[in-house]
Amino acid sequence: MTPSVKTEWVKTEGVRPALRIGPVSVVLRPVMVAVVAALAALVLLLFCLDIATGESHIPLGRVVDVLTGGGTRSQRFIVLDSRLPRALTALVVGAALGLAGAITQSILHNPLAAPDMLGITSGASLGAVSVVVLGGGATGLLGTLGAPLAALAGGLLTAAAIYLLAWGRSPTGDRGVTGLRLVLIGVGMNALLLAGVSWLLTRATLQDAQRAHLWLNGSLNNADRSGLLPATLALAVVVVVALGSARTLAALRLGADTTRALGVKIQTQQAILIGSAVIGASVATAAVGPVSFVALSAPQIARRLLRTPGEPLIGSALTGAILVVGGDVASRSVFPADLPVGIVTAAFGGPFLLYLLVRMNRKATLA
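== Iron complex transport system permease protein ==
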């Protein structure tokens, strides 16, 4: 006879209510669930708006009709073949950058520890620009996969170099990588890599320099299915690693001694998680170019919206998608010219970075 499963509500004064079903208990966070649902709904709305926006505007109802299998042949061509790849690329790139930023900031306990601030994005940019400038008019498989693979290699090599240079003894005497040291080395590496990109542009032909310059501003104009596939695969890798290591990320926020007491191998887990974040940021950069400040801003915005002690993974991915897709909508509807989405996100992210610096300075002053 199968034993009955007992279901009960557990509520203690000052503690979140929990639902216990047999041996499984779940803490209920209705506000957090509501905010995540609202973010997901906003992503869906902006995604449809991105498809509707263009030289010929398509009503939102018609976009939804086409996406659900309706519409005329011409409408299906415009929505599915012409605009859908761009909107999907913006969605995937934003989610990958937001998730990569949440991972690095959680591990290093620093809101400035984002891939674009640490030089990872610049390393990916140097690799991709090298293919554009030195590869000339490469076609075929090299033309399709050359830039993404070079960007991935550049991001991974940059991350490995920064990690090795940041390795040393902490103030407590432990050997490893500290957040402040890694951020400082990353800022210096970022400047060095940007100088390398500028040098490559001086040696490029006019046509290659124009292509590279458009790409360096984070443009979705040339987004297609060939760049969407690698970015989607990279996002899948980051999602699997991040969600599978959610408990480890929570433990890493508690400090080295507490984390070791919980049985977590700090350096091994840091390397795995940072490696996954580098893959996501590098391939996302290869797909559309460096989209500035998304990986920096998205986790901090999501943390404030969800009121969590650390950077939330799902919330950061959704917020990153909102920033990129919303930036693409704004670049084509608010401004008179079709601006690269990286310019729009930089216009938003610059003031947000100043806000974070002022806030950190105030905390340090009060301490």
